[in-house]
Amino acid sequence: MTPLLFADITVFVLSLLVGFEVISKVPATLHTPLMSGANAIHGVVIVGVMLIAANTTTPVGYGLLLLAAAFAAMNVAGGYIVTDRMLAMFKARPAEQGVRS
Amino acid sequence: MSGFDTVTHAVYLACAVCFVLGLHLMTSPVTARRGNQLSAAGMLAAIATTVVVLARDGQATLLAAVTLTLGIAVGAVAGAVAAHRVKMTAMPQLVSVFNAVGGGAAALIAVGDAVAQSHSGDLAAEPVRVTLTTVLDVLIGGVTLSGSLVASGKLAGVLPGRPIAVPAGRWINLALALAVVAAGGAYLTGNGGLAVLCLVVAAALGIGVVMTLPIGGADMPVVISLLNAFTGTAVAMAGFVIGSTPLIIAGALVGAAGAILTKLMADAMNRSIGAIIAGGFGTGDENAGGPAA
Questions:
Q1: Which residue in the set B232, B242, B249 is minimally distant from A52, CB to CB?
Q2: Is residue A48 domain-resident?
Q3: Cβ–Cβ gap A72/B73 under 8 Å
Q4: Does residue A85 sit within a domain?
Q5: Where is the NAD(P) transhydrogenase alpha subunit C-terminal domain (chain A) (predicted)?
Q6: Residue A64 is nearest to which of B115, B231, B251, comparing CB atoms?
Q7: Considering only residues 48 to 67 of chain A, which have any Cβ-Cβ distance to chain B shorter than 8 Å?
Q8: Is residue A30 one of the residues assigned to a domain?
Q9: Residue A75 binned pLDDT confidence (cut-offs 50, 70, 90)
Q10: Domain carrying residue A81
């Protein structure tokens, strides 16, 4: 086991702990937007897809790269937009009530 | 470490901070939208940095650059259009589709890396650190891809929302799991190469379908959240395969946060995650008047 791998494992474990801690009490209405927001964050996979492009030289590799790039871009672009739309309508409701009362 | 490396690592670190803070802000109604925007800003910075890294290295062939750009353009437009046009009520199934493609992309990274390695060097000589995470990435990513598509199909009404009992589902699952262990073990010990990796992919896709089909439509949001946590873990594994810290951080973050969120959602429905995965309850379309059989 190399020191570099150990550093990666350390980062992995600590990130897991951060993930557990960062979500504490969430009102039920925010469950779906939060799920969608977390879904958008794992769209970071697009960075990985871009990095493997540097080693892609075979026809099969180009095919996989094209598919992976389309998948990842769809995840990241769609994920953030749909989350924003969910949260936009969520935010509009308390404001309307504020005007009425 | 050159000055350039220092800057890129610092930006990646800042992006990770954006993801964590963004996720935290998203747990309160007042700050939720700002949280998502912060996380999106972090994502844009990560992507922009990676573009600079690629351009500076100059390793990618012109065809690879064109392929990458084309793929991203098509995917981004498709995702953005779908996200803009979807009806409010249909959002959960769209999120599930985005989750499916995210898991698929994570699995494809490992497969793409293996293809590149088998072409340029000896695949059997890969260290266990790479082969083990490759198998895990392909397994989790594959399960998420097919499982999320089935979940989405159930919510969208393409598939019946009621629990679909898979004949001898338990045995099929066992057989698929054994296939994963056997093929994964062979890959780990440097035997079989790409062929057994493809076998892991096929078995993982099967597991995702067999796992999700018996679950009722009413439980689908919890299942999508669980598969979301799976994708996070798959992305972290992809990070280990190609040695990319941002993927490890963000993947583990989503994996853990998604797991907690899944538990919260199940608790809110008075259901246990175990009972949901076991399936056969909560049809979600009782009111549709469809016959049960």
A1: B242
A2: yes
A3: no
A4: yes
A5: 9-91
A6: B115
A7: 48-58, 60-62, 64-67
A8: yes
A9: very high
A10: 26-100
Residues of A in contact with B221 (CB under 8 A): 31-32, 35
| Interchain CB contact of A20 with B (< 8 Å) | yes
Residue A10 lies in a domain: no
Q: Tens of pLDDT along A61-74?
A: 999 999 999 999 99
B115 assigned to some structural domain: yes
Cβ A32 vs Cβ B269: under 8 Å: no
Q: How many domains does chain B have?
A: 1
B107 lies in a domain?
yes
| Residue B138: CA count within 13 A, CB half-sphere | 27
Per residue in B153-179, pLDDT (tens digit) is 999 988 888 888 878 878 898 999 999
Number of inter-chain CB pairs under 8 A, A vs B:
369
pLDDT digits (tens, 9 = 90+) for B202-225: 999 999 999 999 998 888 999 999
Which residue of A23, A79, A89 is in closest CB contact with B88? A89
ipTM of the complex: 0.90
